[in-house]
Amino acid sequence: MNRKENRWRSASDFSEIEMQVKELKNWFESHGRTLGFAESCTGGLLSSWITSQAGVSSFFRGSIVSYSGRIKEKVLGVPRHILQCLGEVNLPVALCMAKGARKVLEVDWALSITGVAGPTGGTKEKPLGFVCFALCGPGIDRVEQRYFDGKERMEVQFQSASYGLELLLTTLNCEPKQK
Fold it and tell me: Mean pLDDT, to the nearest integer, of 19-27?
């Protein structure tokens, strides 16, 4: 749990992101499924990458940038007692965010990202770079937490959005075939 991941990518790696988005688009179009996000610490960065590609409206329904606990509660349905007891950055909140996004956006798949991007706000238990992810889809609820190295806020945001994209692709490639 103390392991930090160094997943910072340079601007030249945007071509890899572009290829991943195209792969994602191909998967959603070929499977006739829809996608949405609930982003907190990334502030819509992952949504920006998705919408940089033409034609993604065929599967991408949108994103809720739930930067405050109030929006997490009011829009995404995260129970107040979870926010009050555990804070806004933890796996149960990420899972509620993804489930809420799936419901509000009426999508098959929803990914949520909530974390501590810094430069302030980190604690001993949840230091700078601590990020929680949840992915909900047909028959799948998956949660993960990661630590990302980053001296600057944008580094943590970039690594978080990048990991979210990879988590989505990895999970979709393993999705059981529907009968």
Answer: 94
Written as six digits, the tokens of 142 are: 């998956």
Closest CA relative to residue 166, chosen from 15, 23, 6:
23
On whether the CB atoms of residues 38 and 63 are closer than 8 A, the answer is yes
Q: How far apart are CA 120 and CA 134, in angstroms?
A: 24
Q: What is the pLDDT of residue 179?
A: 46
- Tokens representing 49? 């990458």
**Amino acid letter, 66:** S
- Return the ∠ at Cα 91 (arms to 24 and 64), rounded to 5°: 50
Q: Where do we find the tokens 């749990």? A: 1
pTM, to two decimals: 0.91
Give the helix/strand (H/E) hosting 46: helix 45-51
Task: Dump strand ranges (E) for 40-176.
Answer: 60-65, 109-115, 130-137, 140-147
Quote the tokens at residue 156. Answer: 């943590």
Q: What is the mean pLDDT of the chain?
A: 91
Question: Tens digits of per-residue pLDDT, 8-17?
Answer: 555 556 788 9
Which residue do the tokens 């999705």 mark?
175
